[in-house]
User: Which sequence fits this backbone?
């Protein structure tokens, strides 16, 4: 069963704008991770936020986590054409296993 | 990039034939995973391994088997392929030491079963 559900399914923005993607999940977690997938490639890890953290930054990425609402958001600031990709959230419970959502397709137009 | 090689990268085969996909890593990571990716489903875990000869089932394990005889190799076998197993298959690895290790992915195998 799918744990994370991303919203929106697809997002199209202009270069320089910010992109926000949301993820909801169903059960308790140890951490939540975000991955990017470029067309025809494997997933690349972007950022991890632990269950006891509320916000984390990495470069142009900002992730928030609200465990009371079982939701997370990924903000990409000042987007670039190279950010065009699919973005997935994944939750980790016990046992070093991840459960992925269906992903958000981001298109950044130059 | 993490040293993960999947082979073959593309394969077309017929229903009922056996198929084996290989994942090879050069990172000496303990954990290895097989996922399938289908439109609208994200990635779903098929099987994973937490050491040599130590494997366990994932969410969608029916019709698949795995083997890990060496740290660096994790094989996924479809004993008798069906059209529903047409998908893109990804291998991933994880160190597993310490807390909260991310997974590193190969570039996938596109499998078509006619």
Assistant:
């Amino acid at each position: 069963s799918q744990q994370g559900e991303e919203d929106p399914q697809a997002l199209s923005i202009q270069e320089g704008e910010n992109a926000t993607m949301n993820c909801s999940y169903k059960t308790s977690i140890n951490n939540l991770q975000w991955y990017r997938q470029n067309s025809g490639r494997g997933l690349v890890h972007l950022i991890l936020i632990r269950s006891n953290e509320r916000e984390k930054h990495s470069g142009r990425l900002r992730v928030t986590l609200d465990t009371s609402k079982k939701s997370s958001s990924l903000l990409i600031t000042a987007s670039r054409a190279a950010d065009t990709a699919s973005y997935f959230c994944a939750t980790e419970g016990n046992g070093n296993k991840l459960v992925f959502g269906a992903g958000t397709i981001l298109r950044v137009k130059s | 990039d993490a040293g993960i090689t999947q082979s073959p990268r593309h394969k077309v085969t017929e229903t009922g034939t056996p198929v084996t996909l290989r994942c090879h890593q050069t990172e000496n990571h303990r954990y290895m995973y097989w996922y399938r990716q289908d439109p609208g489903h994200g990635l779903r875990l098929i099987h994973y391994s937490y050491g040599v000869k130590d494997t366990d089932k994932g969410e969608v394990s029916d019709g698949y088997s795995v083997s890990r005889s060496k740290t660096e190799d994790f094989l996924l076998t479809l004993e008798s392929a069906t059209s529903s197993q047409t998908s893109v298959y990804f291998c991933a690895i994880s160190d597993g030491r310490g807390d909260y290790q991310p997974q590193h992915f190969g570039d996938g195998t596109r499998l078509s079963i006619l």
Q: What stands out?
A: The two ends of chain B are 33 Å apart (CA to CA). Chain B touches chain A through 27 residues (CB under 8 Å). Residues 4-113 of chain B form a domain with the Immunoglobulin-like fold (CATH 2.60.40.10).
